[in-house]
Structures are given as structure tokens and as C-alpha cells.
Fold:
Amino acid sequence: MAYGAYDYHGKGYNEKTMAQQLASHAPDFKIVAHVVQNTLEAKDNIFIVQDSDTLDCVLVFEGTSTLAEFETSIKMFGTGYCGFKDVHSGYRDKLWWLMKYSMPKLRPKLAKCNKVTVTGHSLGGALADIFSACANSQRQNDPDYRQQMWHQGTPESMTEVYDPGTKTTPLIHILEEDPPADILGEELPLETQAHATTP
Structure:
């Protein structure tokens, strides 16, 4: 699933879409959410896929997909996130922006999952680790925790966002946003003080 988050970047990179990856390796799973968020460095994919039998979900973060995102990986001084100290600042900044602008769209879907596992490849794996550490911290008064949390609802089977016959034709609009107007002028908090697992 982690490689599927790249969702086809062309020959030599990732030649399969998430839907094709699932069809090949996890046929019981379906894509129930797909957000593409422009973070200035890249247009980052985030997927939620759901097991049709258990109603368990996997939140999948895309890894490094542009040269500009390498700067995220080399921005290595320690900073705070979700009450943790010495968190890799590049990964923290990327997750903070993704949670601020994408989580409001993902939260209603996560509420319908039986349980949530988080994964990603490369940069996506780092985001999955930091996200999971925060979610499992249960620091409910922390602003980073509140920004990424969701409330568990009644698990239910969700609608697939791709045509089950083709696995490539979107059934509903897949959101792709330009950077929010305030992304350039807004400063990340310098030091900031749901339940997820990483495989």
C-alpha cells in the first residue's frame, strides 16, 4: 500500500496506481478517500483504504516525490510536536501542514473505520511514525494532537471512490487543492506541545 500512495508517477518511479496495487496485493481493500494536497514542495497524496470484511482502515502517506521534498529530509534540527521533543523538523513541518489542510477532509472517513493503521514509504513512513506517536500519546490538550485527532464512530462500510470495475475511474471528485492562501503568510508554531498503529 505504501508504494501505491505515489499513485503513478511514470516509468521508472511507480508504474501502478493505488487501485492497481490493491488489486494485485490486497484485493479485499478499497479506496475510500484520496486527498491531493499542494504543500508547495509537492502535491502530496493521502489515501484511506478499507478492508471490506473487517472494516479496518489504513491511512497511507506518500513518500518523497519531487526534488523540492528532499529539502524536507535534510531539514534535520530537532523541534517539538505533540509534546515530544527533538522531532525531525522537516518531517514535523510536512505533517503539520498536511494535518491542518487535509485532516478536516479525512476525519469523517476515519470515524467510520473499525481501527486505523498508518503506513508510508520513505518520507511517508516518517510521517506515519510521527502521526502514530502523536495519536497514541493521548495528549488531548495538545494542539498538534487536536489537529490530527478524530472521534471513533460506528464502523461502517464506506463507498469506494473508484469504479470497482476499472479501479481507475473516479466515482467522486478527488480533491486537488492549490496551496491555501494563508500557507505563504502563516508561520508554523516554533514549539508545540484517536489511536493509530504502524505496521
Q: What stands out?
A: The beta strands are 29-38, 43-51, 57-61, 78-81, 84-88, 116-120, 175-177. Helices lie at 18-25, 70-74, 89-110, 123-137, 143-148.
